[in-house]
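Q: What structure does this chain adopt?
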Amino acid sequence: MRADTASPRQGVPSLWAATAIPGTHAPVLAGSVKADVLVIGAGYTGLSTALHLAQRGASVCVLDARQPGWGASGRNGGQVNPTLKHDPDELVRLYGAARAEPLIDAVSRSADLVFDLIDRHRIDCHPQRAGWLQLGYSERAVEAMHARASQWARRGVRVELLDKAAAAARVGTGAFEGGWLDGRAGTLQPLSFARGLAAAAQAAGAALHGDTPVTKLDRQGAHWTARTAGGAAVHAQQVVLATNGYTDGLWPGLARTVLAANSAIVATPPLGALGENILPGGEAAATSQRLLLYFRKDAQGRLLLGGRGHFADPRGAADFAHLERAVELLFPQLRGTRFDYRWAGRIAVTRDFMPHLHQPAPGITMALGYNGRGIALATAMGRDLAALLCGDRAQPCAFPITPIQPIPLHGLQRFYVAAGVAWYSLLDKLSG
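A:
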């Protein structure tokens, strides 16, 4: 097993860390600086925000407690999925058409933004846009997915409805009753994408500093001052907090608005001929269960499969055994195949399964809570934040600004997660 622990500078020794492009140099901040905007967090949200702000002419300083892409941005499954947990019609019912439709459109186009940035900045991250398969084990689940696909089709999205035979041909297993294909989606090497965004932000003029945790944030007149663990300071007119699943107590109550849940992944060696019939079209895939599994092949033909992890960070191979068993159940031809990599990262899950955007005080903005869809959503959020902070009325922010609302009894979050796992497991069994 490749261990799940490493120094902050090395990062987590996942498959992505072993195969990513070199990281951009993000030195420790040594002195005090001024900027128009300080961005705290160098994941997708922070890096996209910094890039788009710098392109608009703002002076930007990015600080991260580790290095760009160290968190979930460099540890996820690499699926570029331009959807929310809620279907379009449900969003209209919840928020009304005037509020929901701009959000639906922004989410629908979020994968376009990701692949456009890759092309524009020549990011070497193995992008592939073959679509995303959502798969169901029961006829009832497949009916619900076909209804979801129809909603997106009415909005101009290319979809395909799959029966059992079509699903088996696309996936390489007869385990599913059917599903649907979302033609907007794709895959990439997530840590390489994060590092590419970091390099693009630097090239546009943003200053990036790693291994520089912020310990205090104060309002001083019309400016904010961020103090770092090393004694340096940043003075800025605007601050963006973009720490997602690794949010701490820097801003009171913010960490209590999300459940920081572990998502774990295992990866095989390159499968060669053994994997020819598994996702032969290069799609990404996920099950329809509430406790979903997600899987894909990488550019070298390895199979990756991910799903829920334990609340605590994994400590050994036993913590990944349920995922390895899932690989064998879905693909019996892989029984006995070894797993070269096992790793995990923390995603931020919100109560309403929606991304959250907050502005609790003048000059400070916070964005987090992508519920496992961060590549597309966080990148789009960063672009919208840049427009919002620059006062661009021609490009209004599609994500609604909401008040900070901590989850009640958040200190019991490990029990929330355990109870949710048990409850959703029961619902999955009852719904087939």
